[in-house]
Design goal:
The chain has a five-stranded mixed β-sheet with strand order 1-3-2-4-5, sandwiched between helices. It has two domains: 1-73 and 193-252, no CATH class; 108-162, no CATH class. 53% of the residues lie in helices and 8% in strands. It is built from 13 helices and five strands. The longest helix has 14 residues, at 125-138.
């Protein structure tokens, strides 16, 4: 099941992985002062089932000549950005994208983040896969050297890391080259959050909201609809957020 905001048959689809599916429509309306603007522009925001689905959706949308925009976090450089670069033939940034992947992958593992993710097994596909494989291991259906088990463990170790991703990337490739990679990707409808992920753009007020990541995003979307609430009090790095919204609304 794909969570979605907008019409079923859209002129443009914004592909997201997380709480952006709730937030983007409210941010657009707040910045533009127009209710349900994405609906009137026939733009849909769709949540895919994990980063690994981005390329599949892109290929599908291309078959129907539907415009797309991918919105991902810096972790996308580990696997999905290289795949998308290859598919879209963005050859000029292959080398630096590889360096960014290496830099992010070198960060230490955050077992605290893995533990937190596993607690939400009912809501997380990665955790469900790991749980299923552990159950098979416990029942003797698979051995400890099972390829699927080793692959999901390695995947989660690479995905859940600690440290400042933006900082380690700039140390590796330089700020100018990093910005060039981001700009080139955005020119090809791939918008990667430069600070990390969606939560890096939350103000202290937004971070103080209760609940899971999705619940926080949903609560924040409601706050943005309140006329007396200023977006500057809720969202950080607003210039980049505005650039995203302009990219979404841009006519080809």
């Amino acid at each position: 099941m794909v969570e979605q905001y907008g019409t079923l048959f859209a002129d443009k689809v914004v592909l997201v992985e997380g709480g952006e599916v709730y937030l983007i429509p409210s941010i657009v309306d707040k910045l533009k002062g127009f209710k349900q603007l994405l609906d009137y522009q026939n733009i849909t925001v769709s949540r895919v089932n994990g980063k690994g689905s981005f390329l599949t959706y892109v290929k599908m949308l291309q078959c129907f000549d539907i415009e797309f925009i991918i919105l991902g976090d810096l972790d996308c450089f580990k696997d999905e950005v290289p795949k998308l670069i290859k598919h879209l033939k963005i050859n000029a940034i292959i080398e630096n994208a590889g360096k960014i992947k290496t830099a992010i992958s070198s960060l230490p593992i955050s077992y605290e983040a893995i533990d937190e993710r596993v607690k939400g097994v009912d809501r997380n596909y990665d955790s469900q896969t790991l749980q299923s494989l552990f159950e098979k291991f416990a029942s003797g259906e698979i051995e400890k050297d099972n390829e699927d088990l080793l692959a999901i463990i390695q995947f989660m170790q690479l995905r859940y890391t600690k440290g400042d991703k933006e900082e380690v990337i700039i140390e590796s490739v330089g700020e100018e080259e990093f910005n060039t990679v981001l700009s080139t990707l955005r020119d090809n409808n791939i918008f990667i959050w430069s600070k990390g992920d969606l939560e890096c753009y939350y103000s202290d007020k937004s971070k103080a909201l209760n609940g899971s990541k999705d619940i926080k995003a949903l609560e924040l979307s409601y706050l943005l609809q309140v006329e007396t609430e200023n977006i500057e009090d809720l969202i950080l790095h607003l210039d980049e957020v505005k650039q995203l919204i302009e990219t979404i609304l841009k006519k080809e």
